[in-house]
Each structure stands twice: as structure tokens, then as C-alpha cells.
Amino acid sequence: MKTLIILVTYNGFALTKNCLQKLSLLPDENWKIVIADNQSADGTPEKIRKEFPQVTVYELGENRGFGFANNEAFRKSFAKENFDFVCFLNNDTIPSPETLLRLTKDLEESSQKIIAAPLVKNQDGSLQRTDYRFISAWEFWTNAFRSVASADVVLHGKTKPLGNSELLTNDWVNAVCWMMPAKAFQEIGMFDEKIFMYYEDQDFAFRAKKCGYIFVIDPNAILIHLGGGSAKSSFSRSIQHDSSQLYFYGKHFGFRGKILSHSFRALRSFLRILFQLPRCIFSKSSRENVSLHSKLFLFALGIFPFKK
């Protein structure tokens, strides 16, 4: 069985180097590592070619987002040879060969249509929840009234065992690390390239469920996720996230989905402003939070323009 591993890079060579050093311990004959570079300005492609000559680098020439980069690396790789499995892996992770081997074994041994993911931990060893529920419209909207922590409880829910196996399952798992049959990626329809960043994995998972695939977590396959992020600022991240959310709900739920997203985001930001405003005199972080949510509130109302 041959596995293709795809990493997307956008600057941050040091993180990518840490990841590739671990991946280089995998047997060359069964594993192919490719990089999709989103127009890095720090010399990432050249440095990878010099230090990891066994790794294939595709320089995409422009940054069209996470989904397009993964799709393009997949298309270019399959134009040259075939693979049984494909692994989409964040470059800000520290993957052990044992973890990736275990995930491929999960796919080989399962009689069900699964997409396998590891148990993700922070660098200090604490658990990093990567599994989620597909929540109802009411749960989504009422999360505007909740704190980030209490909203997370609703979003995550609880994992449950997959049958009698050690594997755990939830509605979907974010794309820190996905291992799946290559044919599954093609059947589900790859990543939606209209999504620049955020929600591309939830969109894919939503379609995967319709195709009968189950997301599973192997608790014995451990992956360290350092956490990096490509957006330039908290405002850039937030506005990109909100834009992708609007697209996702409009795509899957039509006009009602757009109304749901707009109203949720407007209410969320209004409440954040309301609770933080009295603290602005004494707290710089409160002033920054109010400034951020004022812009997000205007964006939710369609007043503030969005540019990538």
C-alpha cells in the first residue's frame, strides 16, 4: 500500500522543517511526501529542496488558500503515479512514523468507509479537541449568547466508541491530520476551492457524511500540534472565518443559511461589544476586543467590505 502525504506551506519554514524531519523516518518505498507552497516569501521551497531532496515541492505561484493547494498537490501527484491512501497533514505538527502507520492500518482493517485521524495533543501533552458535532440551527444561533468556552462544549459534544473497536467517532474531525483512501477524496469531491481558509474541512466533512463516510479518531495514534496559523492578524483571521462561515451556510442551507449566519454574527458581536464596553476605560484588551467586534458587526450587516 502506497501513501501520499500532502503538506501546505506559506512561509514558516522552521515549523515545516520539524515536521519533515519526522516524516523522513518513514520508509521511502511506501510513502511519498509532497509540499504545496502558497507563494512563500521566506525561501521555503528552496530550503526544502536543499535539506529534503526526497520531498517533491509544487510552487503554486499564488496563494489561493488551503483547499486549492491540497487539491492541486493531489492532482499533480496522481498525474505521475497512483496511491492507495492520502494523508492531509498540517505543517505545524510533529508526526511520529508510528502514528501514521497506525492510521493506515486502521483504514486497511476497517470494513466501513472511514476517514482516520489521530488523537491530537498540545506540546505540553494536554488534549487538543479536534472532533465536532454537526449542530442544529438553533444550537448554532444560541451559541451567540454563550462564552467561547461554553460554546465549545456545544460544538464538540462527546465522542463515542465505533462499535466494539478502540476507535472513537464524532460527526467530523478538523483537518490537522486526515488519512483516507485516495478514492474517497475523489468520490467526496475534494476541497471546495471557493473557500480560502476556515470551514473547508467542515464543508468537506459535511459532504463526506452524505457519501457514507465516518470520521474516527485512533486514541493510540498521538500527534503533537504546535499551532501556527497563516492569517496576519486577529482581525484578518476573524473576518476570514466569518466570510467562510457565511459561504458554508449559504452553500448548504440556501437563503435561510445566509440569514442564520448573518444574524448569528451580528448578535455575537453586538453582545461582545455590550459586555466589553464598560471595561474599555481600564483595559487595553477590552478596547481591542470592542474595536474588532465593531468591524465584525458591520461586516455581518453587510456594511464593512471584505478582502482576502
UniProtKB/TrEMBL annotation:
Residues 5-140 form the Glycosyltransferase 2-like domain. Pfam families: Glycos_transf_2. This is Glycosyltransferase 2-like domain-containing protein. It comes from Hallerella porci.
